[in-house]
């Protein structure tokens, strides 16, 4: 599975690429809050590590990695944000679902046993036959030398992604000035 680095960068890149006008009245606050929200939502599915750590039961990549949970979680957090920030419910629900969905997508395409995408209806792991991320072997421990290669790969991909989005936004802004 990808580490929180890849997941939070995916949230950040989506936040930079998707429109989110009027998340807050203050422009600076708007962007920092929005980007923080996107990165947090993109990582939150992996908090299932906590009950697994506490109880010793295998929760990881279970219900929090299912489509039903993703939609339910997005519906509730969108409700909180829309009331708190007076933001369109449909818009923030759509954005939250995309941020959360990015987590499922990365995990689906990464090395490992897969994710229980269709819980509570189908209790089995699903994984893409094509692997795009080498993934970390957490079974070897949280700090293991074998994590260096996948983390290095994630950092390289993240820098590339940030560079591509930065270049795209820059050329879009330049085009807007020219028009
Ligand atoms: Zn995950």
Automatic annotation (TrEMBL):
The chain crosses the membrane at residues 31-50, 62-84, 90-109, 145-168. Keywords: Hydrolase, Membrane, Transmembrane, Transmembrane helix. It comes from the Bacteria. GO terms for molecular function: hydrolase activity. This is Metal-dependent hydrolase. It comes from Zarconia navalis LEGE 11467.
């Amino acid at each position: 599975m990808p580490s929180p680095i890849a997941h939070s960068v995916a949230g950040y890149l989506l936040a930079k690429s998707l429109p989110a006008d009027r998340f807050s009245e203050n422009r600076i606050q708007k962007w920092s809050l929005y980007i923080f929200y996107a990165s947090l939502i993109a990582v939150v599915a992996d908090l299932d590590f906590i009950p697994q750590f506490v109880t010793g039961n295998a929760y990881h990549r279970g219900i929090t990695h299912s489509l039903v949970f993703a939609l339910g979680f997005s519906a509730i957090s969108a409700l909180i944000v829309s009331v708190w920030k007076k933001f369109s419910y449909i818009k923030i629900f759509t954005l939250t679902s995309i941020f959360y969905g990015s987590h499922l997508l990365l995990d689906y395409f990464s090395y490992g046993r897969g994710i229980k995408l269709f819980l509570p209806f189908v209790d089995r792991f699903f994984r893409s036959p094509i692997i795009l991320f080498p993934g970390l072997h957490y079974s070897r421990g949280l700090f293991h030398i074998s994590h260096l290669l996948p983390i290095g790969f994630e950092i390289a991909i993240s820098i590339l992604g940030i560079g591509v989005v930065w270049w795209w936004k820059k050329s879009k802004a330049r085009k807007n000035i020219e028009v």
